[in-house]
Task: structure prediction
Amino acid sequence: MFKRNQYIIQKNVELAPMVYCMVLQGDTQYITHPGQFVEVELPGLYLRRPISVCDWDETTLTLIYKVVGQGTDLMSVLCEGTELDLLTGLGNGFDTSVRTRHPLLVGGGVGVPPLYKLCKQLIAEGKRPTVILGFNTADEAFYFNEFCALGIEVFVSTADGSGGTPGFVTDAMAANNVLYDYVYSCGPLPMLKAVAAMTPTEGQYSFEERMGCGFGACVGCSMMTKNGSKRVCKEGPVFTKEEVIWD
Amino acid sequence: MNSSIDLSVNLAGMPMDNPIVPASGTFGFGKEFSEFYDINILGSFSFKGTTRDSRFGNPTPRIAECESGMINAVGLQNPGIEAIIAHELPAMKAYFHKPVVANISGFSLEEYVYCCERIDEQEQVGIIEVNVSCPNVKHGGMSFGTSPEAAAEVTRAVKAVTTKPVFIKLTPNVTDIVSIAKACEEAGADGICLINTLLGMRIDLKRRRPVIANVMGGFSGPAVFPVAVRMVHQVSKVCNIPIMGCGGVSTAADVIEMMMAGATAVQVGSANLKNPYACKEIIENLPIEMERLGITKLSDIIGIV
Result:
């Protein structure tokens, strides 16, 4: 189920260069799974912008987004108290009902936010996740402390070596000899491919694509899988490792 | 609100509660929207363009933002006509109980004929809408809809194998829309649908590449509305068959404008993608807008300008 509703911006602050955290107040009952996304209507733009949900409770939802274009640029200058029109409850999200005791969560850049609620939910279900976060530079890192506060092991990699393990998330995985029995991952496609290739376990991977509607009507965001064509916005954005065509 | 206000229209023999028809390619098979509202309030809807064989469509990205609109190059992704007859139409019975508009596309005369003949047999189909215009599919270059002769040839071939009203959906990317519409009418078309999207393109300045993988795509949204109104008006002045007006319609006022220009029914496309309640809101606002304009019977204003 997904619905359209109005939300009030409670907070919209810069977490790291060009990365913002927006907290919105409103009806969150249609958000059911970590890894789902919302479609934000922005003044002056025709299409809504899809943004993953980082966290939510009964009355608020948190979006962390990077300024990468016209839409996110506009979002970043919106003030507290501004009303926004959102579609919520979009996409399948991560499935935590799979058999795993020690899941590995691997996020890169703005792929990190949806892993936060996922991590909290896995912990609440009695699982022991380990988290690997990849950023370009230490300056661009965010949410390290928030993940650490959950009482789990968190490792960081930076492409320029300015913090954590130098290199990519896969380097941090190798350097820290992490034990795991399942993988959840969200980030740029080359990262997802590298993680899938390096890990022998099953897992769930969250993809992104340019979308028209975000709720399955326009089929603008199709992706070919081993089970045929799927809509990233509707059957995705999360796909299992075995259904993805990785080459 | 005045209860004597009449929204009904008759489209080539198909009675409709109101003229609102979500446009093909923006409404799937209606299922996603039926989660938002009861889609039986619609006049009808035109389902996702269907070809003989299943198609994945174009590579992604397929969508680009524009000023007051968007570009799409989906490339007629669909499961193929047999899958639609076997799965989509039976599933549709659960949430839509009116005759539907079947949008048919093809890459050869034979394909149009095959698909139209098959879809004509389906009881849920009220009108067949033949897309001779899709500009974003690169197969053989020119589309059937760019010459009066080719458009008429498709019309004749399809009419020979069908019993239901056939509307030809025309592309605006031509030099003389009127001659093409007229050729379709003379070839036996029961109606004309116009306009399809305008061929457009955007460039990603940072990457110095087209935004859309297919380079070009179909431009739609409020920005194209004046073009659509103009073409509907031109065609309605010379053709005697009904017109489904399409192109950038977003409000009840747009619907009235399109009808005054000559449309009997009005399709709503991109607006559904931006606001999933667009058609519901238009239908709710139509009586209010009509009252403001002193219109009691919507069909009275068709082609009044």
